[in-house]
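hey
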């Protein structure tokens, strides 16, 4: 049986006003269906684009917030570094004063720091950061490198000062600087008439008179390099203090140290007597610098004869 092909559709509406019929041809159905499909596809495409734009917007917002926080953190670090640098510069001013006190030439910090080279850390960020971010990071890295160099410089400087102070303290310990005994000065350093020979002679030391047995002390740290009899000195002790200093003690009654013995300033080394070429009990005290006799009064800090 042959099927009849439908070319139109009749739509009937029944209402209070009566019966209404509409005839819809197939071509209209096809057009409406196509339009509906197009609108549906367009709506989907629009929704997809809007969703993608929203997603990109949220991502951009997140990156902007992250960048702001990042730059804020870098800026805070930069300020902290500058504060630290200011404190280091203050310490450097004290460093200069210390160097002056211990007679060390002051540092030219700018020249020393500029002389420190090497590859820049900013090069590793050039392809990863925007220009504003790169500028901030560059400032931070420069401040960081400068501060690190300052710290290293101050460390080196304080090590120099410590070495100089240590050497100065050691020098002071080994420099004759106290009275070797109690008593009064019976003969000074310089030209005089020898009390026994009665001839003009240069007196190479200082004579300090007192009762026999008066204690005699080392006037600086050193090592005993002679202890025994020595011609006109009689019983005699010589101490090598290093740094070119030597002290000599003559006309002793008793010797209480031996050759090679280390002594400290103030150690008891002998007692006063009149051995050798002497008219009475006294100590003949000499100070020599590079084996040249010098006035012992120039190497006595204390202002009394009492030890």
């Amino acid at each position: 049986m042959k099927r009849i092909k439908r070319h139109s559709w009749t739509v009937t509406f029944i209402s209070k006003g009566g019966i209404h019929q509409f005839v819809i041809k197939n071509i209209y159905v096809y057009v409406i269906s196509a339009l509906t499909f197009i609108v549906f596809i367009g709506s989907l495409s629009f929704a997809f684009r809007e969703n993608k734009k929203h997603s990109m917007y949220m991502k951009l917002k997140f990156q902007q917030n992250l960048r702001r926080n990042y730059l804020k953190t870098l800026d805070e670090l930069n300020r902290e570094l500058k504060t630290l640098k200011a404190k280091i510069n203050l310490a450097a001013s004290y460093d200069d004063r210390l160097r002056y006190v211990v007679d060390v030439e002051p540092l030219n910090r700018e020249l020393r720091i500029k002389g420190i080279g090497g590859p820049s850390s900013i090069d590793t960020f050039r392809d990863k950061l925007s220009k504003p971010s790169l500028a901030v990071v560059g400032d931070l890295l420069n401040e960081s490198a400068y501060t690190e160099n300052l710290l290293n410089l101050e460390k080196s400087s304080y090590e120099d000062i410590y070495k100089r102070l240590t050497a100065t303290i050691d020098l002071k310990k080994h420099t004759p600087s106290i009275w070797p005994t109690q008593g009064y000065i019976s003969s000074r350093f310089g030209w005089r008439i020898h009390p026994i020979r009665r001839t003009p002679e240069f007196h190479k030391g200082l004579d300090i008179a007192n009762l026999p047995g008066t204690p005699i002390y080392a006037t600086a740290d050193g090592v005993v390099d002679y202890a025994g009899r020595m011609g006109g000195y009689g019983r005699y002790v010589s101490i090598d203090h290093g740094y070119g200093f030597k002290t000599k003690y003559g006309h002793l009654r008793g010797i209480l140290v031996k050759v090679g013995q280390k002594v400290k300033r103030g150690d008891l080394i002998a007692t006063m007597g009149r051995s050798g070429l002497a008219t009475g009990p006294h100590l003949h005290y000499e100070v020599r610098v590079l084996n040249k006799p010098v006035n012992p009064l120039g190497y006595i800090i204390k202002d009394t004869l009492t030890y």
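The mean pLDDT is 80. The first strand starts at residue 8 and ends at 15.
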